[in-house]
Design a protein that fits this description.
Rossmann fold; 16% strand; 367 residues; single chain; seven-stranded mixed beta sheet; disordered N terminus; 13 helices; alpha/beta
């Protein structure tokens, strides 16, 4: 069975993230085995309860005697901790010769508690959850299971960056550093339009059947993949990569780049609904600037000007409100700009020496 997160968008994310760290030695599977924490009933911010809740995670590196070198790496949309394992190891951004790295399977990814694997709340009976709920489950993992009361850093790409923003506002004294990369503290109307379009495309498939279908959702995925591919990069990037005469072959490959059935589509929808509902200032009845001032950790915010997946505006506003340095990427690669502009050494230096961070703009030399 192919899990829904391995759609066009997530496949491209997986490929580009492997290139940004400059790593020579990724963590080996044997060094970061799959683990689970069982919480029983897990109450969400809405008051709903996920029964038989379990959270998947992996660890790499060694926790020091003072428990001061732990880094939480939050997952991007649809990612599993096995995907994140590629970015933890000696010489990576999350350098396991220095840090104890915790890679977490976010709620709804098919490994942790999800619509596709719940025995009592399967498919669309699975309660809606939020990015904040993801953070609360991670906080419980750290404090109740791993007995870690403070982190050196929280970091992540895309949805992982959204979780990072939630972490630094909800638990401002819990970490020294935060590195949200191509994430956001608040979904804009443009973001919401994208997520709504993707979910609509999947739900229009005749085999969706309100989440109860069993057949392959070929039509829904074809349209979904088109939407995802169109937004991952910029118009100029697509023009440069695909000539008019090659478009037919490109479109055919895009349409079939991922597939699945209704059961796993439920995972994709619930995670997208969490992103669509992201509104950190709304959690506190504050403006974005006021919510940002809750932060006490030192932030290094990475954003992309031509990002058509996660609008960079809220992240920049958040950073400016607290004077946090911003690494701005200017590349037609859009949300995949981390593939085109190398940021690994800069972020790694910030983790080792926060005073090294400064606002700067890096441009893609291939533009």
């Amino acid at each position: 069975m192919k899990i829904i997160p391995r759609t066009a968008a997530c496949t491209f994310l997986l490929l580009f993230l492997r290139t940004i760290t400059g790593a020579q030695t990724p963590t080996k599977p044997s060094e970061a085995p799959q683990q689970f924490a069982n919480f029983g009933d897990f109450k969400l911010q809405s008051g709903a309860v996920i029964h038989d809740f379990r959270l998947g995670y992996r660890t790499a590196g060694r926790l020091n005697s003072t428990k001061s070198n732990a880094i939480l790496w939050a997952a991007y949309l649809g990612a599993r901790s096995e995907d994140l394992r590629e970015y933890a190891g000696p010489g990576n951004i999350a350098d396991t010769s220095k840090y104890f790295v915790i890679l977490v399977d976010a709620i709804g990814n098919g490994v942790s508690a999800s619509p596709s694997n719940s025995k009592t709340q399967g498919r669309m009976q699975f309660p809606r959850f939020t990015i904040r709920d993801m953070v609360e489950s991670e906080h419980r993992l750290l404090t109740d299971v791993m007995h870690i009361s403070h982190l050196h850093a929280v970091m992540g790409f895309s949805m992982g960056g959204m979780q990072t923003f939630e972490w630094v506002t909800a638990y401002p004294d819990f970490m020294d550093l935060g590195v949200p990369m191509n994430g956001s503290p608040q979904s804009t109307s443009y973001d919401k339009l994208l997520w709504a379009a993707e979910m609509d495309a999947l739900e229009l498939d005749p085999n969706w059947k309100d989440g109860n279908g069993t057949g392959p959702m070929t039509q829904g995925f074809a349209l979904y993949n088109e939407i995802a591919s169109m937004n991952l990069t910029s118009p100029s990037r697509r023009v440069s990569q695909t000539s008019p005469k090659d478009f037919g072959a490109f479109l055919a490959e895009t349409r079939k780049s991922s597939t699945g059935d209704a059961r796993v589509v439920c995972d994709a929808i619930r995670q997208r609904q969490a992103i669509e509902a992201l509104d950190i200032p709304g959690e506190y009845g504050e403006t974005l600037e006021q919510a940002a001032r809750r932060t006490r950790a030192k932030l290094f915010v990475v954003l992309t000007l031509q990002d058509h997946i996660v609008n960079p505006g809220p992240a920049r506003t958040f950073a400016n409100a607290i004077g946090a340095p911003v690494l701005t990427l200017d590349s037609p690669c859009g949300h995949l700009s981390l593939d085109c502009v190398s940021i690994g050494p800069i972020v790694a230096k910030f983790l080792a020496d926060p005073s090294s961070a400064r606002s700067m703009t890096l441009r893609d030399a291939a533009q």
